[in-house]
UniProtKB/TrEMBL annotation:
<comment type="function">
    <text>Part of the Sec protein translocase complex. Interacts with the SecYEG preprotein conducting channel. SecDF uses the proton motive force (PMF) to complete protein translocation after the ATP-dependent function of SecA.</text>
</comment>
<dbReference type="InterPro" id="IPR055344">
    <property type="entry name" value="SecD_SecF_C_bact"/>
</dbReference>
<feature type="transmembrane region" description="Helical">
    <location>
        <begin position="677"/>
        <end position="695"/>
    </location>
</feature>
<dbReference type="InterPro" id="IPR022646">
    <property type="entry name" value="SecD/SecF_CS"/>
</dbReference>
<feature type="transmembrane region" description="Helical">
    <location>
        <begin position="456"/>
        <end position="475"/>
    </location>
</feature>
<feature type="domain" description="Protein export membrane protein SecD/SecF C-terminal">
    <location>
        <begin position="240"/>
        <end position="405"/>
    </location>
</feature>
<keyword id="KW-0811">Translocation</keyword>
<dbReference type="InterPro" id="IPR048634">
    <property type="entry name" value="SecD_SecF_C"/>
</dbReference>
<dbReference type="GO" id="GO:0015450">
    <property type="term" value="F:protein-transporting ATPase activity"/>
</dbReference>
<feature type="domain" description="Protein export membrane protein SecD/SecF C-terminal">
    <location>
        <begin position="553"/>
        <end position="729"/>
    </location>
</feature>
<feature type="transmembrane region" description="Helical">
    <location>
        <begin position="283"/>
        <end position="300"/>
    </location>
</feature>
<keyword id="KW-0472">Membrane</keyword>
<dbReference type="Pfam" id="PF02355">
    <property type="entry name" value="SecD_SecF_C"/>
</dbReference>
<feature type="transmembrane region" description="Helical">
    <location>
        <begin position="260"/>
        <end position="278"/>
    </location>
</feature>
<comment type="subunit">
    <text>Forms a complex with SecF. Part of the essential Sec protein translocation apparatus which comprises SecA, SecYEG and auxiliary proteins SecDF. Other proteins may also be involved.</text>
</comment>
<feature type="transmembrane region" description="Helical">
    <location>
        <begin position="622"/>
        <end position="643"/>
    </location>
</feature>
<feature type="transmembrane region" description="Helical">
    <location>
        <begin position="701"/>
        <end position="727"/>
    </location>
</feature>
Length: 748
């Protein structure tokens, strides 16, 4: 009996979901905070060092430093800065949306230690003699900008001015900011046009007062900045930059626009594919995937999360990966329909049979995501956070959302005996009366003998491994500054650039680059790398020069050798931990042989990506590691689906011989081959969209994903299952030999 009320309920539910998303989505998107790589800004990792010999960096010192930095950031007017203490002697500062990066950098790193000295550089007074918060920008009697400060003790200032006055004709009171002992001196600076000291006033009388004015060649802005710094207080430590990355506002804006456009294109292709290939369930997939995207943004807003460029990439990839759960369910339903089951029965069995597979596949990807979050830097953490949220959201929408919506359509009975609405050709449907437990699901790939060609697959992989090894030993990897240390500068112009032009501009700044690589559709971008780490002054000059030259502030990233080694070590540890975690999980859920085979396949994929990058000379950076771990999580999905089908077939049949094992593996691969191709295609759509239309900043990341997807599909189908077959066959033979020996022993 047809229940049209279910169809009405389906449409009402879809309209309700559409209305809710349509009316609230814009507000949610506006609430989400953008990371510095999308709105411009910078991130610096400081190593905290004591200012005096023998002093120790304690937790209290670090917290005091964070407090001082917060006061300085308030001076900059940056909303929602992020300052984190890392380890025992490091502080990470992230400022998104800061307009004047050079000024911000200077204000953060300046110790702001004010000292009053004589011409022989002897300290007479220091910042501790100032009233807290007593500095302000004023004007002197000639109308020039100055800084008024308030002293705690008028008598002390009287003694200081009396002493300086007695030193005539050298009766000069010199005021310094961050005097460097053993390096700076009044004698060296006094003849310069722009001396390092901020004021040098001649003392002609004794002053018995607390109000003092610092007069120098200030602009109003400089005088205000000095007053703000003095009010914020001196830093109790010295800060040394060991890692930094900065993004110009226009770079961030362009990256955001291009990547969102790429996402729209990629997701549109995924939707189109699902509609064409799965038809009615495809419509349900489009609805649930739309809800999935909305749900992710909603959760991210609730979490007060910061959206980064890799985070957007994770969201786009998540759509391709989320559809994997839909495909697993739909393929199981199609299998049951082909065996002649009723639509209702196929729906129930398909949902029940796919749940465990989807759960296993998602948990293994979550393991990779958690490891990425634990060992990644801020942008990689953003990717990992979005990846984990995507997996959880996809599980809710693809499993439960699909069940509700598809259930309404199935239970309406409108589509009974109409398998073509579910992507099944009526010619492929078997007569239920002739179907037994041993009947195999009809498949287009039944003629393919995967096991027979296993040696060929191993030879191909062996040859690829040998070629890759030779490449790595000879050409090695083109390591980015994340792992090799140094400085990277990204330049952008509105007109095409040339290598010679960029080098000439750098020569004016007395900078010698290691290499200059042009990129972009019209060579409007240039990537410049330096062997050494540029200091704050050099970075400031470089940014100002190219902003004036091209009108666009460049991106600058620096990594010290210490941090470079740490990042390389953490990358290795993260891949190792993810592999161990997956081995343990697959062993518990399946068996040890399957776990080992899965890990061999994963290492095969990781090595293929590395060899591909060695061959193409693409730069290896932190996002490369994120791509490798994403592929580790995704590839295991494919392998688990194959192993799940092997386990299912082994429960149906009694395995007595090696030929039985071969037949089971062959059947499992034949039955999951179409699903593997479909799922990889949906992710490939999104990756290619990112490659063609996305930001240059994640281009290498996208290449790594594409190489890994191809390798991952190959290894899941042709390596993992074949390895398991070899080891399981040996185990079966040993078991048979033991049984034969026991049967041959005479009874006592």
């Amino acid at each position: 009996m047809v229940k049209r009320s279910r169809i009405i309920a389906f449409f009402l539910l879809v309209v309700l979901l559409g209305g809710m998303m349509g009316t609230t989505a814009e507000k949610i998107v506006k609430n989400i905070k953008l990371g510095l790589d999308l709105q411009g800004g910078f991130e610096i990792l400081y190593e905290v060092k004591p200012t005096k010999e023998g002093e120790k960096i304690t937790k209290d010192v670090l917290l005091s430093t964070v407090s001082a930095l917060n006061k300085r950031i308030n001076v900059l007017g940056v909303s929602e800065p992020r300052i984190d203490v890392e380890g025992n002697d490091r502080i990470r500062v992230q400022l998104a949306g800061v307009k004047d990066q050079n000024k911000a950098r200077e204000i953060l790193s300046t110790e702001a230690k004010l000292t009053f000295r004589d011409v022989h550089d002897n300290v007479l007074m220091d910042g501790s003699d100032l009233v807290e918060g007593g500095a302000k920008q004023t004007f002197d009697d000639k109308g020039k900008p100055s800084v008024a400060i308030k002293l705690k003790d008028a008598n002390k200032f009287k003694e200081v001015t009396q002493k300086v006055l007695s030193m005539a004709p050298n009766n000069v009171l010199v005021i310094w900011l961050d005097f460097d002992e053993g390096v700076d001196s009044y004698a060296k600076e006094v003849g310069k046009e722009h001396p390092k000291f901020i004021s040098a006033a001649q003392v002609n009388e004794v002053f018995n007062q607390t109000d003092v004015s610092i007069v120098g060649n200030f602009t109003v802005e400089e005088a205000k900045q000095l007053a703000d710094l003095l009010n914020a207080g001196a830093l109790p430590v010295e800060l040394k930059e060991i890692y930094s990355t900065s993004v110009g506002a226009q770079f961030g804006e362009q990256a955001l626009q291009k990547t969102i456009f790429a996402g729209v294109i990629g997701i549109a292709f995924v939707f189109l594919f699902m509609l064409i290939f799965y038809r009615l369930p495809g419509i349900v997939a489009v609805v649930t995937l739309s809800v999935y995207i909305y749900l992710i943004l909603l959760v991210f807003d609730w979490m007060n999360g910061v959206l980064t460029l890799p985070g957007i990439a994770a969201l786009i990839l998540g759509v391709g990966m989320a559809v994997d759960a839909n495909i697993i369910t739909y393929e199981r339903i199609k299998d049951e329909l082909k065996l002649g089951k009723s639509l209702m029965s196929a729906y129930r069995i398909g949902n029940r049979g796919s749940f465990g597979t989807i759960l296993d596949a998602n948990i293994t990807t979550i393991i990779a995501g958690v490891v990425l979050f634990a060992y990644g830097t801020s942008s990689v953490k953003g990717f990992a956070t979005m990846l984990i949220i995507s997996i959880l959201a996809s599980f809710i929408t693809a499993v439960y959302g699909t069940r509700v919506l598809l259930g309404l359509l199935v239970k309406s009975r409108v589509f009974d005996k109409k398998p073509h609405y579910f992507g099944v050709n009526p010619k492929d449907v078997l007569d239920i009366a002739k179907v037994t437990d041993d009947t195999d699901v009809p498949t287009k790939f039944a003629r393919l003998d995967f096991v027979k060609r296993s040696k060929l697959f191993f030879i191909v992989s062996g040859a690829m491994f040998a070629i890759g090894l030779v490449l790595l030993l000879t050409a090695k990897l083109n390591l980015g500054i994340d792992f090799s240390s140094g400085t990277r500068v990204d330049l952008m112009s509105e007109k095409p650039l040339t290598t010679e032009e960029v080098k000439q501009e750098l020569k004016q700044l007395q900078l010698e680059p290691k290499d200059v690589v042009l990129s972009g559709n019209n060579n409007e971008m240039a990537i410049v790398r330096f062997l050494g780490v540029l200091d704050q002054k050099e970075i400031s000059q470089l940014k100002s020069h190219f902003k004036e030259k091209y009108g666009i502030e460049p991106n600058v990233s620096t990594v010290s050798p210490t941090v470079g080694k740490e990042l390389a070590r953490n990358a290795f540890i993260s891949v190792l931990i993810a592999s161990i975690g997956i081995i343990i999980y697959v062993t518990v859920r399946f068996e040890m042989y399957m776990a080992i085979a899965a890990i061999v396949a994963l290492l095969h994929d990781a090595f293929f990506i590395i060899a591909f990058f060695s061959l193409t000379r693409l730069e290896v950076d932190l996002t490369f590691i994120a791509a490798v771990l994403t592929i580790v999580g995704y590839s295991i999905n494919d392998t688990i689906v194959t192993f799940d089908r092997i386990r299912y077939l082994m429960k149906k049949r009694k395995v007595k011989t090696v030929d039985d094992l071969k037949d089971i593996v062959n059947k499992a691969l034949q039955q999951t081959f179409g699903r593997s191709i479909n799922t990889v295609l949906t992710v490939v759509f999104t990756v290619i969209a990112l490659l063609l239309f996305g930001s240059e900043a994640i281009r290498n990341f996208s290449f790594a994903l594409l190489a890994g997807l191809i390798s991952g599909t190959y290894s899941s189908l042709f390596i993992a299952a074949q390895l398991w077959l070899i080891w399981k066959a040996k185990q079966l033979k040993k078991g048979k030999q033991k049984r034969d020996q026991l049967e041959a022993e005479p009874e006592l």
